[in-house]
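A common beginner's mistake is to predict each chain separately and then try to dock the pieces by hand. The better habit, illustrated here, is to supply every component at once so that their relative placement is modeled jointly.
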Amino acid sequence: MSQAALQKLKERFPDAVTQTYTGKGGDDVALVKKEAIAEVCRFLKEDPDLLFDMAPYITAADYMGSEPRFDLVYQMYSTRKNHRIRLRVGVPESDPVVASVTPVWKGANWYERYCWDMYGIRFEGHPDPRRLYMYEEFVGHPLRKDYSLRGRQPLMPERTVDEPFRGPGPTGG
Amino acid sequence: MSTNSDLDLVPAIATRREDALSGLGKMVSQGLGWARKYSLFQYPFVTACCGMEFMAVAAARYDLDRFGAALPRFSPRQADLLMVVGTINVKQAPILKRVYDSMADPKWVVAFGVCASSGGFYDNYATMQGIDRIIPVDVYIPGCPPRPEQVLDGIIMLQQKIQDQRHQLTEGKQPALPAKG
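With all components supplied together, the output reads:
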């Protein structure tokens, strides 16, 4: 929907934007380098032709085994121009730190907390870098592919259940 | 095997018979059981989508009031039936335990829906695999969500169970009387 925006982004950041493509359903996607993401987002929001004033979601994906392991996905929408764009940022496992875009969009706050909670990607400059869903005592990041599927970490002692058909207990199986 | 009603088929009811009670104690127990089973004040611990079904049961069409269980109390101190309606995750377990501990005796617990009973299909890192891992449960109502008829059946089973339990006017030790003077 916004080839023009993609083109403009490529011209403005020839080094940071490594690849662009149009996915199925017409989503325009740009692969952006990790170091430049805050700058790119600031540009996309403030450029008078683009005006991406809203980030409907920011999420991540874990491609364990490939490098970079994580993929941060920034979906953006302009309420004034009515166009969208998606940025993908590769994040290596060895250095999972990305600059926060909460200063650009306030709404990014909880999405970045979510990415920290579920995938363990830290956001530098985030005003409130706590977990979003899990409790503070929780160890690890449950949506990582190497987290045990049933790795429950109970907050309180559980009664013993002698029923053999009830499945594994808190420690998982 | 001949049965008088559907309820005779349910094995969970025949838990504690007061066979060993004395005549008067038996009458008191039966009277108290009768009173308690028809005045179930419930605390709805509603966490998930089963809550919609719970509302349907409590509303006019299915009408829990017919069983004396109409009034939800939103304080555990005033309730004697804890209805755990919906998924309980690990983060919520201490809250549920605290609510259960706040309720005054005698108290009963109903696990409403498959998530409260066994975790349901949420066999993952976050979900408690059944609330009986933290609190004792009297009646399990399966279903995702259960039909209102199932819930009513569960309530009737609980009533039968309460009637069959042993009730006393005073539980345990009598409180010390103040000295005369």
